[in-house]
Structure formats: C-alpha cells, structure tokens
Amino acid sequence: GAGVSQSPRYKVAKRGQDVALRCDPISGHVSLFWYQQALGQGPEFLTYFQNEAQLDKSGLPSDRFFAERPEGSVSTLKIQRTQQEDSAVYLCASSPGTGGAGYTFGSGTRLTVV
Amino acid sequence: GQNIDQPTEMTATEGAIVQINCTYQTSGFNGLFWYQQHAGEAPTFLSYNVLDGLEEKGRFSSFLSRSKGYSYLLLKELQMKDSASYLCAVRERSQGNLIFGKGTKLSVKP
Lengths: 114, 110
Fold this sequence. Notes:
The structure holds two protein chains of two kinds.
Chain A: E1 5-7, E2 10-13, E3 19-24, E4 31-37, E5 44-50, E6 53-56, E7 65-68, E8 75-79, E9 88-95, E10 104-105, E11 109-113
Parallel strand pairs in A: 2-11
Antiparallel strand pairs in A: 1-3, 3-8, 4-5, 4-9, 5-6, 7-8, 9-10, 9-11
Chain B: E1 3-5, E2 9-13, E3 18-25, E4 32-37, E5 44-49, E6 53-57, E7 60-65, E8 70-75, E9 84-91, E10 98-100, E11 104-109
Parallel strand pairs in B: 2-11
Antiparallel strand pairs in B: 1-3, 3-8, 4-5, 4-9, 6-7, 7-8, 9-10, 9-11
C-alpha cells in the first residue's frame, strides 16, 4: 500500500484480556518498528524487525508483550493479560532499511484498558 | 544513557517565526530527525540532519551541532495549521530505531 496501515484504529479491552494489534508496512520495506506513545509524551521504542528477524526487543516492558513478523511483511504486537498501564497509542513505522531518513509511521492503535 | 530534551510547550503568533530547541545525549549518533504530529495522527517527517549545519525546506529549517549535542527546528511565516506537537528524535546507529524526546506542543494564535 501507499502508507503504513494499522488496525484496529481503536481498541477497548477489559483488564486481563489479550489483544493483538496489526501493522501492514509499506511494501518492500525491510525494517519495521513498534513504539508506545502515552498521552502527551513522545513515542517510546518497543521492538525492531529486519525482515522476519526480531533484532531488538529491548524496549518491550514485560514478558506480556510479544511481537512477530513471520513472513517479513505484516507484523502483530500481542499483549497478554492487559493492565491499565498498557493504555497508550501503539505506533508502527517502517523504513527501507538503507540507513536514510525514510521512516514512515502509521496512525496507530489507541488501546484503552478498562 | 540516552536523554533528549525539548521544551514542553511553546506559543507563537500567526505569521511569526518560532525556534524549537532540542539537546541530546546518546551513546552514538547517526542522524537527528524532526517530526510533526497533530493530535490523534501519525508523526510526519519534517527534516533530517546528519552533518553539522542548516537544512532548509520551504518554511521549515533545521540546524545541527554534533559537538554541542544541539539542534533546532525553525518555523517561519507561522500558520494556524502549524499548531501541533514537534518531536525531536536521534538515531544512534545506522538502520536503528529512533529515540524520541517528549515533544514540544506548539500553539499558534491569531
């Protein structure tokens, strides 16, 4: 597609529920990043894929967070047993992976845990 | 450690010029980025500096001094639509992730 697509746009989960957030990167983009953005804050890095390989997951806040990109294209961020502190916007970005300036962000999924 | 600082909020008048500063302390440096983010929307790319100096793009310019760990974004001829958050971000290594500051919320008033 022309841009990075994320779904769902909004998600309300009850505390303890599992959620799955999807990211469709720009076709051909090698690198894919997930970020978490709390209200009024900058995006915080969660994890990074190069093709299907997860090269960095140092930003994942706990073992309840899991991300995958099995075929090197679409990625899913899964959060198990959601807690109120997980409420945030989850942003996905992709880039060609050539080291330039071409990071493109999706509009994000706003997760609210009640 | 990593630290990126920028002012939390700024206010400016339509038609004026505003400068948003960013200072950074990171383990490595492979580029500084500025993004604009309207509420509820995706961050959109504004500028990228990897060498010292000024990069100009229309009404927007960005400056970098690597020795001082300092950048600024200059917005000229402000328009109401420029009201948004402006995010400063540093990439520590080639092809790596971006480390963001907390963002500067700019309000443009008539």
